[in-house]
Each structure stands twice: as C-alpha cells, then as structure tokens.
C-alpha cells in the first residue's frame, strides 16, 4: 500500500480527459521548425495552402520521438486525430491516421478540445445555421435531424442563433480566399470530432462527469486532513490476504476464463461492437432454446455460473425435476425472490415459503439440519429480508456438492451439450461492414425483456411444482393396482 | 388632451429606444462574430502582438456596447407593464442579449486559456505556434468590427476592464439579469422560421461559395492518379464531379 493509493480515496478515479494536456504538449513539440514534423504545401486548383503534413511523416516522427515501433506510433497518431488535434484533408469523416501520403493539417488551438468545458449545443446550432446558409439547405441527413432537434429545443434562442450565424458568415467572408478554405476545413473537422456523423468514431466519449476537477490541487483545510485520517484508518482496518493466495486465485480465474473473454479472444461469430452484427447477442439471449457451446462450457466452471445463467438454471431445473428433487432449487429461488423483492410483500412471502418448504409435512419439504431449522424458525417470528439466509446457504451447498456433480454427468446435460451451437466466425468485407453500420438499431427495450421474464416465471408457476405428496400418492395407487 | 399627447410622446420615445436597442444588438452580434473569427488565429502561425492588440480593441468595443445595451434594456423592461405592445419585442431582445452575452463570455474564456498557453513573451515561444495553414491576417475582420456605430459609443465613457475581470463582470451581469427581471425564457417566440436562412438570397456572392467545397475535393485529383478521384473504395470515377466522401 503506497501513499498514492490512499489519495485515490476509493473513488476509482477515471482520468477522463486529463490526457489532453499531454497531447497538447506533443503537438507543440511537433511544431518546432528544426525537430518537428516536415510540412509541405497543399496544391489546390486556385491557390496553395501551406502546412500540410503526410500521415507517414507523422508516424515516423512519433516513432522517433517516443522510441516505439510503427504500429504503436500509428495508434498514437490515430488517437491525436480522434481527439481533433490533427485533421485529415481527404476523407474528413474518418478520424484515423493513414501511414501513407494522405495529407493532414494541425488544428488551430481555438478548436482544440478542452477538459474544462463541454462543447455547447448553441455553437453547434450556429454552425449548422451557417452551413445551411452556405449550402442553401443541402445538408446531410444526420445534420438535418440535428438541426430540427436543436430548432425544437432551442426555439427561444433561435433569433440569436440565426443572427449570429449570419454575422459569422459575413465576418468569415472578409478574409482572403485561402484562409477561408482553411477556416472552413478547421470548423468542419472540429464538428466531426464533437458531433460525429453516424459511423465515425470520435474520442469524445468519456463516460460520467466528475464532480471535482481532477487536475486541480486540493486546498489543505482541516476538513481535508480529517478526511485523510479517516481513510487511512479504514485502510489499516481492512482484512488482508497473502499475496500468493490472491495471485493464485487470479491466475486460476484468468486461465479458466481466458477464452471466454471477448476482449482477449475472438468472439464467435463476431463482436457486435466491432462489426455491428448482433448475432452474438441474439444467440446468447437469457432464455434462448439452444445455448452456444461456450456458454455450456461456462456452466462446468462453477455452480455459481450455472445458477446465474437463466438458461443454465432452466437446464438444472429440468434435471432436478427428473430426479424429483426440484424443491431445493425452488426453495433457493424463493429465498432470492425474498431477498431482492419488494418490501411490502415480504411478510407474506416469508410465510408462504415456510408453509411450502419448511413446516412439518409441507408439500415440498426440504432437508436441512436441525440447528439451521431452529435458527430459521426462530427468525421467522420477526421476518426480514435475510431471515432465510442460513437455510439458503445450506441448500446452496447441498446442491453444489451433490446435485451439481450428478447434473454434469446426467443425460440432460449431455443432451444440451450435444445440441449446443458453435457458430462460425463472420468474415465481413468493407462494404458489408458499412451496411451493418447503417443498419444499426437499438436493442430490445429493458421493459420488454422484463415482461418476457415475468411471462417465463408465470409459465413455470403454472406448470406446477412436483408435489412430493402427490408423487407418493401416485406411487401408492400404482402399487395398489 | 395634453395627457393623450403625453402618452403619444411616451410611446414614440419608447419605440425609438426599442429600435435603438435592436440596432445595438445587431452591432453586438457583428462585433462578437468578428471577435470569434480573429480568435481562431490565436496560437496559430499568424498569432502575434498585432493580433492580440486587435482582439483587445474589439473586446473593448464589445464591452461598451454590452454595458450600454444592458442599461437600456433593463430600464425598458422595468418600466414597461404587462400587456404593452412592445413588451414581446423587448423580451425577445432580452433573451437574444442574454444568449449573446453567454456566447461572448465563452469566447473570452477560451482566449484567456489560449493566451496562457501561448504567452509570446520570448523568442522561442514563436516556435511553438501551431502551423495551422493560415497565410493572411485578420485585419479586414478587425476593421469590420471597428467600423460599427452605436449612438452611445462615442458619448459614454465606460472604463473597460482587462480580460479576467471582464469574464467575471459578465458573470455578475448575467446573475443580475436573471434576478432583477422575471422574463420566462421559454415563452419567447422567435421571428425566424427553421431553414429560412438558407433560402434567402440577401447575402450576395453565395454562388462562389459553392466552389469552396469543390475546391476541397478537387485537390485530391492531383494527388492520387491511380484509384480514382478520392480514397473512397467505391470510387472509380476519375473526374472532378465525384461526390463520394
């Protein structure tokens, strides 16, 4: 534990845009006439514009300055383009660095991204209005949508926006032609970064806003010291584990899950975040009929994995039904429902569970030892959310040690394993990728998913639990005959 | 009889004041737009003491217009009662002025930060200036801003603050405006319809601006002779009329 860890204060500090300052310093270094990036003149039909730089020069400079290889330099260069410090002169909507003779130019500092303030919608509205004036209404589809949105919710400011747009347009016309071209390119590049057109990846997605500026030095007031003392005390009080043990656990976890992590291993058929094709998600829906092979393999890793996956739990339930020991799982699920459910129905739920599972002669009586039963019954006199915790843990351990092993060897599981699908990896061409990007649609609303869950639960309840007394009576009747 | 004549005179003075404020708002827009255009050169290879002086002068002009306009609008709004014909117009002006101030303050904050990053006090600071591709200066823009006329520009003498205080002053101004006058911002209806500014042909010389976009496309022809006129992989057209990008 170092002092730096304490200063974190457990806030899991996300250095949101603190990297911008560092990128700025690199950009400033690139300007040096002797050691900076070589620039050339861009030749247009009517004029020439200086200070154009090629992608390969940028990559070479970065690789030289930071002593890295070309791939790393290219990645860093792409980051600078994605942030908007350098913009491409051709193919302006794709914010990547091409390590060839494609031309780029530095963005003027006025249009640099800043950590201190958000990019305002008012400015974007003014820009769109300006663009509308220039192109006489021929804006792109996404720009038109944005314009209409902004007109709707900035309606009261609209006079100001149009007036300012016209004035800015006229002010821009005062400049000489080459400078006007440069300014237009700069402004367009700025808005590609901060209001990316569909299909463009910009670096401006930074997650949640923090309440406190992470770059600001905190004043050392008595309150501050009080807080530090409190956090250090908590740090000292935390329980410790031998590092060999924790590292061993980490290694075991990573070796088990190595191939199941979409970041570290290829995701079959393809990662929807990369190829915009959602087959992976549809194949892995919570209650799909045939699970994927990877998913079934995960059920063999631990009992917890099996239970947490809805499809796995359904399979386990089927196995237990065949073995006539479904009451354990039903009890466990009822306890979960009690723990996570609404507070108003808690008392009735606890009573219902007692009647169904714990009372003497109950229809679905579960087998727990005397001590746990004692504690539970005593606790049920004053029921609360966690009153059945001891019994639930006992049953969980029972299932884990006994049923789980048998499940893995059972025909039910082997059947599921056989039927599991192993999808082929997708191989998309560039055009197909673009089409996929255009066809992106929002996924099922969580409301609908919850409705489906509730329907499933109702179906399960309707199909009726296997009542042990009913089964015994059936067997008796059979014997009689 | 004389009471009627008095109210007519009142109405006329008020109308004159409102028109004055409208024209002042238009000039404020002009000045802030020019200010922004000049601010884009800060930190670039065209930055220099000359640019910074021009920015200071423009800022002073803007400050004078702001303070005068603020005083007049405030007095108009306070003395006007509900239901008078010009009230809507004055409220609209109020909202426009508010938005103008906020926008201008943002620009001021930006140039304050930029001036800190690029101090220009030493010789070597010039080497750090960004090669943004500018070739000419912004003197014409500054001249455009300097040429504005408002009735009180030459008459009233208000002390103009330095940059940091100006930003703080606008904050104070905005707070005061929100507190003293109870104008619901959302109730103001704009006079401009959506998309209309693209249709009107008041700005002459718009035809030549089409070519700005074409210019930015055309240059690719000279670079890449092999795969068509642009880097788009579907482009097999080797001519200037390619619209793919």
Automatic annotation (TrEMBL), chain A:
Keyword Membrane: yes
DEP domain span: 33-108
Topological relation to the membrane, as annotated: Peripheral membrane protein
Alphabetic keyword roster: Membrane, Sensory transduction, Signal transduction inhibitor, Vision
Domain of life, per lineage: Eukaryota
CDD domains from the UniProt entry: DEP_RGS7-like, GGL, RGS_RGS9
GO cellular component terms, semicolon-separated: cytoplasm; neuron projection; plasma membrane
Gene Ontology biological process terms, A to Z: G protein-coupled receptor signaling pathway; intracellular signal transduction; negative regulation of signal transduction; regulation of G protein-coupled receptor signaling pathway; visual perception
One family name in Pfam for this protein: DEP
Chief localisation class: membrane
Entry-linked InterPro entries: DEP_dom, G-protein_gamma-like_dom, GGL_sf, RGS, RGS6/7/9/11, RGS6/7/9/11_DHEX_sf, RGS9_RGS, RGS_DHEX
Cell compartment(s), UniProt: Membrane
Position of the signal peptide: none
Keyword Membrane: yes
One function term, GO molecular function aspect: GTPase activator activity
Domain RGS stretches: 302-417
Protein name: Regulator of G-protein signaling 9
UniProt organism field: Sinocyclocheilus grahami
UniProtKB/TrEMBL annotation, chain B:
InterPro entries, alphabetized: RGS7BP/RGS9BP
Biological process annotations from GO: negative regulation of signal transduction
UniProt keyword terms in alphabetical order: Signal transduction inhibitor
Family membership: Belongs to the RGS7BP/RGS9BP family.
Protein name: Regulator of G-protein signaling 9-binding protein
Native organism: Sinocyclocheilus grahami (Dianchi golden-line fish)
């Amino acid at each position: 534990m170092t002092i730096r860890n304490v200063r974190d204060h457990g806030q899991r500090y996300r250095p949101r845009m603190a990297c911008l300052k560092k990128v700025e310093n690199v950009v400033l270094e690139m300007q040096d006439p002797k050691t900076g990036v070589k620039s050339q003149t861009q030749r247009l039909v009517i004029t020439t514009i200086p200070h154009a730089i090629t992608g390969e020069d940028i990559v070479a400079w970065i690789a030289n300055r930071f002593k890295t290889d070309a791939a790393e330099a290219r990645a860093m260069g792409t980051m600078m383009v994605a942030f908007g410090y350098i913009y491409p002169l051709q193919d302006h909507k794709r914010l990547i660095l091409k390590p060839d003779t494609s031309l780029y130019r530095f963005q003027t500092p006025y249009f640099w991204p800043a950590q201190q303030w958000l990019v305002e919608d008012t400015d974007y509205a003014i820009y769109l209005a300006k663009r509308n004036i220039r192109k006489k209404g021929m804006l792109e589809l996404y720009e038109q949508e944005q314009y209409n949105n902004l007109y709707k919710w900035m309606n009261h400011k609209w006079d100001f926006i149009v007036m300012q747009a016209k004035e800015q347009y006229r002010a821009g016309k005062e400049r000489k032609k080459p400078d006007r071209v440069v300014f237009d390119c700069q402004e367009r590049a700025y808005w590609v970064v901060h209001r990316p057109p569909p299909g463009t990846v910009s670096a401006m997605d930074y997650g949640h806003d923090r309440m406190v500026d992470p770059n600001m030095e905190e004043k050392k007031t008595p309150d501050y010291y009080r807080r530090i003392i409190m956090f250090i005390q908590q740090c000292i009080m935390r329980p410790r584990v031998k590092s060999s043990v924790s590292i061993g656990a980490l290694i075991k976890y990573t070796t088990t899950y190595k191939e199941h992590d979409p970041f570290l291993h290829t995701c079959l058929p393809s990662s929807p975040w990369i190829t915009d094709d959602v087959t992976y998600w549809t194949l892995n829906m919570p209650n799909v009929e045939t699970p994927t092979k990877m998913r079934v393999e995960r059920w063999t890793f631990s009992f917890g994995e099996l239970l947490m996956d809805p499809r796995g739990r359904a399979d386990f339930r089927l196995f237990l039904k065949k073995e006539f020991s479904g009451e354990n799982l039903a009890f466990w699920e009822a306890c979960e429902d009690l723990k996570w459910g609404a507070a108003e129905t808690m008392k009735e739920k606890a009573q219902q569970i007692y009647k169904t599972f714990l009372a003497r002669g109950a229809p679905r009586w579960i087998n727990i030892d005397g001590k746990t039963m004692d504690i539970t019954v005593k606790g049920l006199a004053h029921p609360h959310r966690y009153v059945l915790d001891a019994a639930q843990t006992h049953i969980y351990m029972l299932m884990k040690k006994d049923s789980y092993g048998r499940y893995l060897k059972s025909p039910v599981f082997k059947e599921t394993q056989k039927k599991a699908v192993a999808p082929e990896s997708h191989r998309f061409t560039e055009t197909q990728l673009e089409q996929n990007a255009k066809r992106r649609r929002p996924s099922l609303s969580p409301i609908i998913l919850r409705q489906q869950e509730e329907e499933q639960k109702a179906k399960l309840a309707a199909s009726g639990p296997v009542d042990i007394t009913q089964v015994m009576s059936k067997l008796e009747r059979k014997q009689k005959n | 009889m004389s009471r009627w004549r008095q109210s007519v005179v009142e109405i006329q003075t008020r109308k004159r004041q409102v028109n004055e404020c409208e024209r002042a708002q238009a000039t404020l827009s002009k000045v802030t737009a020019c200010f922004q255009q000049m601010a884009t050169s800060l930190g670039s290879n065209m930055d220099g003491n000359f640019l910074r002086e021009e920015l200071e002068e423009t800022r002073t002009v803007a400050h004078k217009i702001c303070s005068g306009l603020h005083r007049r609008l405030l007095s108009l709004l306070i003395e006007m009662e509900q239901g008078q014909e010009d009230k809507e117009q004055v409220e609209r002006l109020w909202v426009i002025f508010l938005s103008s101030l906020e926008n201008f303050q943002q620009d001021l904050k930006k140039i304050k930060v930029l001036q800190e990053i690029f101090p220009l006090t030493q010789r070597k600071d010039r080497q750090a200036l960004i090669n943004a591709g500018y070739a000419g200066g912004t003197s014409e823009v500054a001249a455009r801003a300097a040429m504005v006329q408002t009735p009180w520009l030459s008459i009233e003498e208000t002390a103009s603050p330095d940059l940091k205080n100006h930003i703080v002053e606008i904050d104070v101004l905005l707070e005061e405006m929100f507190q003293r006058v109870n104008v619901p911002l959302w109730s103001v209806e704009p006079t401009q319809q959506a998309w209309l500014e693209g249709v009107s042909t008041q700005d002459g010389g718009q035809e030549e601006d089409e070519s700005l976009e074409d210019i930015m496309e055309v240059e690719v022809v000279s670079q890449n002779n092999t795969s068509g006129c642009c880097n788009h992989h579907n482009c097999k057209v080797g001519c200037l009329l390619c619209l793919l990008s």
